[in-house]
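Lab notebook, bench 4. The sequencing result for the construct came back, and we need a structural model before the next group meeting so we can plan mutations. Quick request posted to the team channel:

Model the 3D structure of this chain.
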Amino acid sequence: MAGVAPSTVYRRWGDLNQLLADVAVARLRPEGPPDTGSVHGDLTAWAEQYIEESATPTGRAFLRDMVSGGPECTSAWRGGEYARERIEMMLQRGRRRGETVPDIEDIVDLLLAPIIYRILFEPAVPPAGVARRLADRLFARNAAGWSGQAARGN
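Done. Here's the predicted structure in token form:
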């Protein structure tokens, strides 16, 4: 035992699900997002890794626990913050390379959200190639000048 009173643990995390979600996030964090040499490749590889880790029975249970982590939703928000940090790292690398990069909101809406939907609400593992197909669609829209940012009034 770490010499910490149970009341301290419950004050910090509220319940066992939130504590376990934080432990899982800390253990599952890779060193950094993939670096393939392009944002398109990075996002595709990252989405493929996300599916590989999250579509397992353990990964699905973790996502469900994170989303149902209590009325404050702190576990879910931390998970979302973590994903955005990883995405932003890839976008910054792309900008440094001189690439035109998609808007982070478009990445969340067109790449990440459909993957999470499939993992949480469909019994089958997302089909092979879905990460590439979604990333290709995101970049095709980006190349055509479409941005959800304008549609959202940002």
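Helices lie at 6-13, 16-28, 39-54, 57-67, 74-96, 104-121, 130-143, 148-151.
Will bring this to the meeting.
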